[in-house]
Fold this protein.
Amino acid sequence: MENLVFDNSMLVLYKSCPRKYYYRCVEHLCPKIPVSVHILFGQAFHKALDVWYTEHDVKLSVEEFVSEFQAYDGLHETKTLRKGTEAIIKYVEKYKNEPLKVIQVEMGFTIELGKYIYVGRIDAVAEGTGVLEGIYIIDHKTTSKKNSVLVDPNHQIDGYIYGENQISGKPVAGAILNNIVILKNSVTPYRQFTKRSASDIHNWINTTLAWMDRISSDKDFPKNTSACKDFNHLCDYIILCKNDRDEELCRNLQNNFYTIKKWEPFPLEEEEDGNAISRL
């Protein structure tokens, strides 16, 4: 059945390795492995910033982080409760008087893109004044390396700028990447700013539609063996790829090492309180 709904993660996954996309997004195989402490730390920090931008109370923000992450404290030497708390306090101190007002957090969007549906979730949308006048999308990132993300070109940022424009009907001035660098001996919040022209967005639409067409028409989902150890991490599906000529063995591997968890581009369960797409 042709897939008509996509998010940025699905596109990135397919570009990395079509076979990996097939296992995760078509067969819905999810590895039975613990979630990375880095992901858990980042999720907790995201929620803490959501509290800061909705309640404007640093104490409540810290409490949210502690509540979300305390069960995992001690699993990593730098991703700790102490470092997370320090990061929140430093972040608030640095940006509390900025000429930006966050008007929305965790904004989910669903837009038409040709015959397809493109969905996403923006960490925050802000309205600036003065030198930052205009609407900006904001993406939070906890990392151990400065400038670890290239903001231009960046297809996720392109798509999120377009998504906000389509939902609000207003021009979007640009994007802000909210980086929080967590190291053993330091915590540093800093930002990267980027803008997009109408031509940039037009190119993103055409390129994205071309990738969606390719994915939808793919019948084979070939392996990209150069991606088996991306980011110095062995692919979660390599045991299936190495044994795919033995159907019975593959079924046993799937039963023992994977669970069926449908890929949800737009996880509706995160919006049960109704606040995910509300303006502040």
About this structure: Residues 28 and 261 are 5 Å apart (CA to CA). The longest helix spans residues 198-217. Confidence is low (pLDDT under 50) at residues 268-280.
